[in-house]
Design brief:
By secondary structure, this protein is an alpha/beta fold. It folds into three domains: about 150 residues, Rossmann fold; about 160 residues, P-loop containing nucleotide triphosphate hydrolases (Rossmann fold); about 40 residues. The chain is about 40% helix and about 15% strand. The protein has a five-stranded parallel sheet with strand order 2-1-3-4-5, sandwiched between helices. A five-stranded parallel sheet has the order 7-8-9-6-10.
Length: about 375
């Protein structure tokens, strides 16, 4: 299994989140990711490495088993060039940059295992002169190409033409909502009794976390074309489309036109492709005109597209009842807030010493809010 070390400088919460998001997607693609954020949670349990972060960073950058991705930022480039003395937050990045610079020197500039990732278009002149020669991947647009470089294997989204006969094991870190898990396991099989799964519920019931888990399970079905579109993200539609299509095997729709026109163009590309595909839509109450498009176009497409599966989640979703696509749809699953008893069951793998009395007290204090209960009773963040 390939491994990759992500070298970056902590410059903002947004940049840190972008790096982590890339790490999550690479892991979902089967790549071992070495990232301080992951190590802090999974290996060091919040306490950091015994040898300290600078030595840990140097060890990862020197490890010949890792490929290295430089997460481009002006601050990282400055410490690479030695034009800025790092403060506390930049010491690890400075240590990594020094190792990377020496590796390139030792290899006469031939970097078989080092590339650059950007999260926005860069002015070429802002990149250090001796790094300008190396290819840069723009994420998420170039994610498939990045995956190809890391693994040596082209994106496999074209590999699966049919749905599996049985569902793979479903990873499900949630309190209750088991009916959704069971229905999803049916949905992603060849003999699914329905091909549209509508899930409806009020605010603060963990719906977005649920759709992320559904996508994660779909990504673990080798080669399956799948994507998740969150209508909370439509402030930056272009980035959301890039994330949506990156594992669907079709290009993002042209930027010109209305959102409805862009989704229609995307659906046309998917139909032309004609291979097993799963579409997940979140926060659908914010979809605006796309609600009507889904009702009158997307879900109608299911009638003649047995290879297509759709999950729509939100406070309001299209439901069956006098629709041409009724036979393709599951009854709407309505989410309810989990009970203290269900939260106790959820907590057992993570907090085995917790009892029902404690759970009830926490439940009362936080007014039953799932997001808070999941933090208190679930796995470490």
């Amino acid at each position: 299994m390939p491994s990759v070390f992500l070298s970056y400088r902590r410059i903002s919460d947004e940049h840190n989140k972008s790096v982590r998001d890339l790490g999550d997607r690479l892991e979902a693609a089967g790549i071992t990711v070495v990232l301080d954020q992951f190590a802090q949670e999974r290996e060091f349990h919040g306490g950091g490495p015994d040898e300290g972060w600078p030595r840990w960073c140097v060890a990862q950058a020197k490890d010949p088993n890792h490929k290295i991705l430089i997460m481009a930022s002006a601050s990282w480039f400055k410490i690479y060039e030695g034009t800025e003395t790092p403060a506390k937050e930049g010491l690890g990045a400075a240590a990594e940059a020094g190792v990377i610079q020496q590796l390139l020197y030792n290899r006469a500039g031939i970097a078989k295992a080092i590339r650059i990732v950007t999260f926005a278009e860069l002015d070429h002149s802002t990149v250090p002169l001796d790094l300008q020669r190396y290819h840069r991947f723009l994420d998420p647009r170039d994610f498939a190409a990045l995956q190809h470089w890391l693994t040596g294997v082209a994106s496999g989204v074209q590999a699966v033409g049919d749905w599996p006969g049985t569902a793979p094991p479903i990873t499900w870190v949630m309190a209750d909502h088991d009916k959704v898990r069971e229905a999803f396991a049916q949905l992603i099989t060849a003999d699914a009794p329905f091909r549209y799964l509508p899930v409806q519920g009020g605010s603060e019931l963990g719906k977005s976390d649920m759709t992320k888990q559904l996508l994660g399970n779909a990504l673990r079905c080798r080669g399956l074309a799948c994507g998740r579109f969150d209508f909370k993200g439509t402030i930056d539609v272009e980035s959301e489309f890039q994330r949506f299509v990156q594992n669907l095997g079709v290009p993002p729709p042209p930027a010109a036109g209305t959102l409805t026109q862009r989704f229609s163009a995307f659906l046309g590309s998917l139909v032309n492709r004609g291979r097993a595909a799963l579409l997940i839509f979140d926060t659908f109450e914010a979809a605006g005109d796309i609600f009507r498009w889904a009702d009158e176009h997307l879900l109608v497409t299911l009638i003649r597209a047995p290879w297509l599966r759709v999950v729509i989640v939100g406070q309001k979703v299209p439901g069956k009842g006098g629709k041409s696509w009724d036979a393709e749809a599951s009854p709407t699953l309505v989410l309810r807030a989990p009970t203290p008893e269900q939260w106790l069951v959820f907590s057992k793998p993570f907090k085995p010493g917790v009892d029902l009395e404690f759970v009830k007290k926490v439940y009362e204090v936080v007014d039953g809010k799932p997001a808070v209960l999941a933090q208190v009773l679930g796995p470490p963040p």
